[in-house]
Write a structure and sequence with these properties.
Blueprint: H1 2-19, H2 25-37, H3 39-54, H4 71-87, E1 101-104, E2 111-114, E3 120-123, E4 128-133, E5 138-150, E6 159-163, E7 166-170, E8 174-180, E9 183-190, E10 193-196, E11 203-205, E12 210-213, E13 221-223, H5 227-230, E14 237-244, H6 245-250, E15 259-262, H7 265-268, E16 271-277, H8 281-292, E17 294-299, E18 302-307
Parallel strand pairs: 5-6, 15-18
Antiparallel strand pairs: 1-4, 2-3, 3-5, 4-5, 5-8, 6-7, 7-10, 8-9, 9-12, 10-11, 12-13, 14-16, 17-18
Length: 315
């Protein structure tokens, strides 16, 4: 037990040091040596990071200190809060779980996470990622949903994101990954990105590039969509630009609210454009009905869009 508590106490000290704005290359090298020295160190670090996240940062570690606050004071404040977790037992029931952390967002929730290395994740609604931090590798597995990732630079430890059978490898990069059933979309915002897939081989993306994998296109389809459309979800928005009505209606599903059913193939293929809040499917349905001059009705939790019935002929 003493060895476990020592590992947790050391992990708390390392988190505080790495969170400090004045951390040095020597600090990072020392941390990697400590992490590689004992499997219990990796478990303790992953566990304490998870405990801190679930505790809401015990005063929000992600919130910056006032500009006038000395760095040493900030470091001591972080260390003290982490020490309180260890002193309380640190939730040792979780200590021997697999060496990963799962983060899940619920319907309508967008979750922002800062990993201990400084990398930042934004989870869209109904998303699930699994994070592994090792001495030689940082890995995020997107199990479902969508995530935006801003990768902290670390040449010693590549940052790998997997979604299904695809992997994206980055050193210092910002990009979006979406994973739904057999579909995977990867969009590079800045930096450089290597995408690996058995079907396509290595693909190198430049900022603004997107690659889409589907059952019918396992090798991937590359394009360059407008960045503001792809990343609008991070601001709680959905932007459509000549998007088929059926596809646009489906975009609201992860965020809860009423379901939109489009009746008729011709109507489903009609294009719509506009900017809508992710939680306001009803406003989108009303706007679409006005734009396309179609009928809109609601039964329970479902909104129906259908062509207007022609008037009956005069007798």
């Amino acid at each position: 037990m003493r060895d476990r508590l020592t590992a947790l106490a050391d992990a708390a000290a390392w988190i505080a040091r790495l969170r400090n704005d004045d951390r040095t290359a020597e600090d990072e090298a020392g941390f990697r040596r400590w992490l590689a020295a004992d499997p219990d160190h990796r478990r303790a670090f992953s566990h304490l990071s998870q405990t801190w996240e679930l505790a809401g940062g015990v005063g929000d570690m992600s919130a910056p200190e006032p500009a006038h606050a000395p760095d040493r004071r900030r470091l001591l404040a972080i260390a003290a809060s982490l020490a309180s977790i260890v002193a309380a037992g640190g939730g040792l029931a979780w200590f021997y779980h697999e060496d990963h952390i799962d983060y899940v967002s619920t319907t309508g929730e967008q979750r922002r996470i800062t990993l201990y290395d400084g990398s930042r994740l934004i989870l869209d609604s109904r998303s699930h990622v699994r994070v592994q931090m090792r001495a030689d590798l940082r890995k995020v597995e997107l199990l479902s949903g969508r995530v935006n990732i801003a990768v902290a630079h670390d040449r010693q430890r590549p940052f790998v994101v997997s979604a299904g059978a695809r992997e994206a490898v980055a050193l210092g990069t910002a990009f979006d990954v979406a994973h739904e059933a057999a579909r995977v979309n990867i969009f590079l915002i800045e930096g450089k990105l290597l995408v690996r897939s058995k079907e396509s081989g290595p693909l190198y993306l430049a900022p603004g590039d997107r690659v889409r994998f589907t059952t019918n296109a396992p090798q991937g389809i590359r394009d360059r969509p407008p960045a503001d459309i792809v990343t609008a979800w991070q601001e709680g928005q959905i932007i459509f630009d000549h998007t088929p009505l059926q596809q646009a209606a489906a975009a609201f599903l992860p965020y809860g609210g009423p379901r939109i059913e489009v009746i008729g193939h011709d109507l489903a293929a009609q294009a719509v454009s506009g900017n809508f809040a992710v939680e306001d499917a009803a406003a989108f349905a009303r706007a679409a009905a006005t734009l396309l001059d179609v009928e809109v009705t609601q039964q329970g939790g479902t909104i129906y869009l259908a062509d207007r019935k022609p008037p009956l002929p005069a007798i």
